[in-house]
Amino acid sequence: MDENEVQTLLEKTDAVLHGHFLLTSGLHSPMYVEKFNVLRNPVYTEKLCKEIAARFINDNVQLVVGPMTGGILLSYEVAKNLGTMSMFTERVDGKMTFKRGFGFAPGTRILVVEDIVTTGGSVEEVVNAIKDLKGEVVGVGLLVDRSGGKVNFGVRTEALLHLNVETYKPEECPLCAKHIPMTQRGRTGK
Questions:
Q1: What's the rounded Cα separation, in Å, for the pair 184 and 173?
Q2: How many Å separate Cα 70 from the centre of its chain?
């Protein structure tokens, strides 16, 4: 699957939204990728995850980990395609951690997966949680890298789609300056 096919799939499912959005990172953006418009479809999710798995098939991945919530679906499907186990991290008192009895042996080769990356903060937290337990992160697989290529996790990172989308600090946002109201996520305002 190449980037054009991924972008076509996102557009076909109305996963790409335009307006004035407040991102999880706190930044503002004129575009938002509503991942669940794609992930709610098992056929599309399987197709995208097969592509992520194919990119790491020769890396001897022993475990796939994603952050809650979208990362759970991706982790499961990528792990299924790699023939290995899946786990996810959750926030506890503001810190990304493994719960539910999840654990692994030191040195376990782990692939981290995530849906959309803007600043990379959540992935970095997952990587740190893995390192705290002495796991070895062998790579990061992403559906969409919307950082403009700015994220660097210190390991090979494969994104199915790269988007260079403007983001703004709230105090510097031209959409705010024009008094354009925030678009509710999941709605285009039409």
A1: 17
A2: 7
Distance in angstroms (rounded) separating the CA atoms of residues 88 and 2: 27
Please provide residue 87's backbone torsions phi and psi, each rounded to the nearest 5 degrees: -140, 170
Is 49 within the bounds of a domain?
Answer: yes
The answer as to whether 182 is a domain residue is: no
Say how many domains are in the chain. 1
Domain-located, residue 34 = yes
| Model pLDDT for residues 37-78, shown as the tens digit of each residue | 999 999 999 999 999 999 999 999 999 999 998 899 999 999
CA distance 89 to 142: 16
CA–chain centroid gap for 37, Å, is 14
Task: Establish if 188 belongs to a structural domain.
Answer: no
Distances (CA, A) of 26 to 23, 34, 60: 5, 16, 36
